[in-house]
What we know:
Distance between the termini: 14 Å
Number of strands: 9
Shape: globular
Helix content: 40-55%
Bound molecules: N-carbamoyl-L-aspartate
Structural class: alpha/beta
Order of helices and strands: HEHEHEHEHEHEHEEHHEHHH
Radius of gyration: 19 Å
Amino acid sequence: MDMLSMREVSKSLAQDIFVRAARMEKGDFERREGVLSTLFFEASTRTKSSFLSAGLRLGLKTIDFPPERSSLSKGESFSDTIRMFDNYSDIMAIRHPREGSARLAAKIAAHPVINGGDGANEHPSQALIDLYTIKKEKKKIEGLKVALFGDLKHARAMHSLMQALALFGADMRIISPPGLEPSYGIMDRINSEFGIKLKATHTPDFSGCDVIYVVRVQEERFVDKYEAKQIKDRFRIKLADVEQAKKDVIIMHPLPKIDEITPDIDASPYAKYYAQASNAVPVRMAIMDKCLESKEGVR
Ligand code: NCD
């Protein structure tokens, strides 16, 4: 089993992963044998390290691939690199700036591939961490009012999360700067798949929200950095904005956060992004455990 897109994750698979993750948190699991490779062709703090930590805790050995010190600098292709790591390992976590790269890797590799982010496209393991966190904090997902706020065009974590929230029946409010609405016709697709009516707004309004999910303006994906800077200055969430929402609202963020959340929120009881980041380990343990259960993953 690969994990490439949230569109390929059913509700029952997601629930299976949540049950496993809860067991991982309690230490109630059987260790697995094998090797995990992390191939990150783009910067990462949490995703790569939490995959490595999750792999080690699960019992796997790990190989980290540093692209800048590899034969890629001699001109070796992505495909050949994947072929080699398919020989060296039993499961791979991949991040790459190009959309579709994880799917290409999965076509080449016999072993499971997990998409740790492909360009601005998808980041399914992050979406599962997010749902797990919401479920833990709010005891349910269905019917919750969830505001999605920030640069929704470039945020792959958000693209996967929108699919995941629709799958579990949450009520989404899409708030982005003009021009940074979710791309790739994501809203149209979700609307027709789930029979809902998502539409983007540009005015921050968090009234009645149970969850506010914030993403940064992804300056590195802008052609014009000056435009990104101007948007960043105007699109920032303050404690006063949060107070429009329900009293027990939680603020989430996939991190890294730059300055889109004011520091007074960090110390408030609303901030759940550090707890969310720590849920990455049990959820990624659960995902790898599930992927390795399928035949292709076992040598
Ligand atoms: C995000 C990513 O790389 O997609 N971070 C993460 O994986 N937790 C978010 C981002 O870079 O803004």
